[in-house]
Amino acid sequence: MNIHEYQAKALLRDYGAPVSDGRVVTRAEEAKSAAGELDGPLWVVKAQIHAGGRGKGSFKEADSGEKGGVRLAKSVEEAAAEAKKMLGRTLVTHQTGPAGKQVNRIYIEDGSGIERELYLALLVDRQTSRISFVCSTEGGMDIEEVASSTPERILSFSVDPATGYQPYHGRRVAFALGLKGGQVKQCVGLMATLYRLFVDKDMEMLEINPLIVTDGGDLKVLDAKFGFDGNALYRHNDIAQLRDETEEDSKELQASKYDLNYIALDGEIGCMVNGAGLAMATMDIIKLKGAEPANFLDVGGGATKEKVTEAFKIITSDENVKGILVNIFGGIMRCDVIAEGVIAAVKEVGLKVPLVVRLEGTNVEKGKEIIESSGLDVIAADDLSDAAEKIVKAVKG
Ligand code: GDP
Ligand code: MN
Description:
Blueprint: H1 5-14, E1 22-25, H2 28-36, E2 43-47, E3 58-59, E4 70-73, H3 76-86, E5 90-92, E6 101-102, E7 106-110, E8 114-125, E9 130-136, H4 143-149, E10 154-159, H5 167-176, H6 182-200, E11 203-214, E12 219-221, E13 225-228, H7 237-240, H8 250-257, E14 261-264, E15 269-273, H9 276-288, E16 295-298, H10 305-316, E17 323-330, H11 335-349, E18 355-361, H12 364-373, E19 378-380, H13 384-396
The structure holds guanosine-5'-diphosphate and manganese (II) ion.
């Protein structure tokens, strides 16, 4: 689960990390008084969406001003005016995709004078199963770009969980970032704080880009992107409450309520599959046959008819879906349950696109019988390759 920058900064503030004072607003009328509570003489007005690259992003609407989603203002009035231009508009960045994201919140912050922009992240390294620090002198930039063009400018190392964070970890970061004098001590303290926050809250990712050296020579967190382990949220009520469902894909949100493993993609073939491995293989073979999957969907082993119905409804609600492939290898999951779920869903929402069904395994005959006797216009398939070929042909002609 991800949270907004202003929420991440509130957590950082609680833990004693250096962040600027700021106020969040959801209505343009609030912006002036919010900005007035800050000291100035510089204000930063920041669109709050769950995506990075806001500064270099652009708005879809003509009346939203020409600058991106991070704007500097020299007066309270100017800050309020910039907030007004962004609220309710759609910000497109390289992370939002072409559809962009609607800006429903604005964070107005005390502006900082910047001497250097640095990059810092903590994440769970799957290779070592440890928490890793990643840092670079190339802050404020796209880190993927730095990683591919100048990988030598990124330092990464993991922390042994038996010792936990030690001051030498912080000094390693400080020297890699070229920090001097009192900054080294600040860095050692800040890294300890970030590590503690990361572990306390079961985080998956903590990215600060940029971490800055201010014109006064101090370290400060200027941007913060936090991701939390969804499986651990049950023990962090405070974090769970920060969830902003308006930032999430509505179909993925609906799927999570039914405990379905669903990820929206941007192809044209909707897939309903059981088992993550088979789901991946199905996506691969759709691509191999010349089309693109519209989603990843694993209905799981013990899916009920209701769950299958819901899954089918989620797939058909996607307007990009031009055809559906149901690919089930019944083991624990029974083919007749799948068949019943599909029929129930079609009765409820109708079927406007071609549907290919491939059933194999437990109760396959019963499943096929249910579909045949339903009078549904289903294209039957015998194996995975045949099924993929048929749905691609039905969609692409
Ligand atoms: P992002 O574009 O979504 O990553 O948003 P950031 O919060 O990282 O802001 C983008 C850029 O705006 C930063 O890299 C800075 O160069 C600039 N910026 C953000 N806050 C301030 C500030 O307080 N003062 C100044 N001078 N620049 C800022
Ligand atoms: Mn940033």
